[in-house]
Each structure stands twice: as structure tokens, then as C-alpha cells.
Amino acid sequence: MASAAKGKIMAVIGDEDTVVGFLLGGVGELNKARKPNYLIVDKSTELQAIEDAFKTFCSREDIAIILINQHVAEMIRFVVDQHTASIPAVLEIPSKEAPYDPSKDSILGRARGLFNPEDFR
């Protein structure tokens, strides 16, 4: 598949525990412009910085998947909902502090609309 070409990476936006966990797993990278593929969100992180990181990750050619803590995605829901491209894929994940709630995941909701429940029986 062309979309799964060699050299595609993941980006992570989330709390410190989530991002550090993925960095320890080898996900962290810097692109040619020395920009990281992750953003640690804490109480002092401005909404604009989260939005800008998400939009930047969506526009980068080297990123195939964006992992974002669901509670962070809720902060910028209107921006996440505007992303309709399949690449990069956006996956909302739980954090230690906030469990995953499928009813809040707009991307999962769109995916459910694509399939008939009978397809899975």
C-alpha cells in the first residue's frame, strides 16, 4: 500500500505519562526541520499550542498515525472533528487519569456509520 510506505511514523499528543511511555517505546523522532512528533500537554499548555500541534501533525507527510489522549481531544474537539482524511489516522486513547469513553470519540462514530452491524456477524 502506498499509504503504508516506509518511513511513516506516529505522532503523540497527550499527558506526560502517555507521551513518555511512547517515547520510551521508541516513537520519538525529529524531522528534518528538527520538529518533534509529540506534544506533552499539562495544565500550563495553551489550547492554541495543542491545536497548532494537531494541525501540524495532520499536514506532515511523514506522519501516518496521530495518537491523542481522549481528554486532550475533547479540548480541541472542533479541530479533531474537522480532520476527515484517512491519513494520518487519528486514534483517541485513554490516559491514566481519564478512561476511554467510546461515546465521545467522533472518529469512532464516523467509522461506525460506514459499516452495517450485520457485517460483523
Automatic annotation (TrEMBL):
InterPro entries: ATPase_V1-cplx_f_g_su, ATPase_V1-cplx_fsu_euk, ATPase_V1_fsu_sf. It holds the Pfam family ATP-synt_F. One of its GO terms (molecular function) is proton-transporting ATPase activity, rotational mechanism. Belongs to the V-ATPase F subunit family. Subunit of the V1 complex of vacuolar(H+)-ATPase (V-ATPase), a multisubunit enzyme composed of a peripheral complex (V1) that hydrolyzes ATP and a membrane integral complex (V0) that translocates protons. V-ATPase is responsible for acidifying and maintaining the pH of intracellular compartments. PANTHER family: V-TYPE PROTON ATPASE SUBUNIT F (PTHR13861:SF2), VACUOLAR ATP SYNTHASE SUBUNIT F (PTHR13861). This is V-type proton ATPase subunit F.
